[in-house]
């Protein structure tokens, strides 16, 4: 089963040239739970994601995946430690149909026709469009197409940077549901969001990014929504 902590950032500092954006980020994302990282526009949420992905090297601190220090590893080697991202636009081939895309995305060892049928069963919206080229799907449908196969082989850690941006409410609800299903299957899910309301009900833990640090983090049930509103006002 492996360690209970899927992803941990310890004292991570990073920025762009002389501008330091992250000033010592400490964050724990447990397996089996959805952690939501909130922060105002420009607080550094995308920078946190870039550092986790390996696209931006921290100047100090460490990143651990399932207990292994991956700080010095390039992006492609982190995938081997079970790290996945959403929206996963690279996962979709626009010229191929939904069925063809699913067949290609199935985890190794899963029977193609059985695996595709299993995914389509759980995603009626994709089933209805199984013969459509992925390039003709909406952004939300493409995201579902990229994420759905993960259910057959859940990643250890999934990082989603504003996954609901620009999605129709019905699709964004389905995407959030999928994160909860992945968490239930043991994935450590980190959802990074600017707007809190639609993700709070899904969250197990909430962390608030402000002034380059995690200002506070607590169980979602202990988050007072008025405090959150205040945090946004002072953080703006
Ligand atoms: P948003 O919701 O707008 O994406 P965010 O919380 O994700 O905000 P970041 O995108 O991480 O914030 O940006 C944090 C700060 O770093 C901002 O002040 C931004 O202007 C700056 N920044 C981001 N990317 C770069 C870059 N490539 N070069 C220089 N500065 C950058």
Summarize the topology.
Blueprint: E1 5-16, E2 19-30, E3 34-39, H1 45-53, E4 60-65, E5 68-69, H2 75-79, E6 83-86, H3 98-105, H4 112-122, H5 124-127, H6 139-147, E7 157-161, H7 169-184, E8 188-193, H8 197-200, E9 205-210, E10 213-219, H9 225-235
Parallel strand pairs: 3-8, 3-9, 6-7, 7-8
Antiparallel strand pairs: 1-2, 1-4, 4-5, 9-10
Helix pairs in contact: 3-4, 6-7
The protein binds adenosine-5'-triphosphate.
Could you describe the 3D structure shown?
- This is ATP-binding cassette domain-containing protein.
- Belongs to the ABC transporter superfamily.
- Residues 7-236 form the ABC transporter domain.
- There is one protein chain.
- The chain has helices spanning 45-53, 75-79, 98-105, 112-122, 124-127, 139-147, 169-184, 197-200, 225-235, and strands at 5-16, 19-30, 34-39, 60-65, 68-69, 83-86, 157-161, 188-193, 205-210, 213-219.
- The protein is α/β, with parallel strands linked by helices.
- Strand 7, helix 7 (169-184) and strand 8 form a beta-alpha-beta unit.
- Helix 3 (98-105) packs across helix 4 (112-122) and helix 6 runs parallel beside helix 7.
- It binds adenosine-5'-triphosphate.
Q: Based on Cα principal axes, name the global outline.
A: globular
Low-confidence stretches: none
DSSP strand (E) fraction? 25-35%
Mean pLDDT reading:
89
The number of E-state strands comes to: 10
Distance linking N and C termini: 41 Å
Helix content: 25-40%
Described by strand count, sense and barrel closure, the largest sheet is:
6 strands, mixed
Computed Rg: 18 Å
User: Pairing-aware structural class of the strands and helices?
Assistant: alpha/beta
- Tally of contiguous helical segments: 9
| Heterogens | adenosine-5'-triphosphate
Question: What's the helix-strand series?
Answer: EEEHEEHEHHHHEHEHEEH
How is the largest sheet built, in terms of strand order? 6-7-8-3-9-10
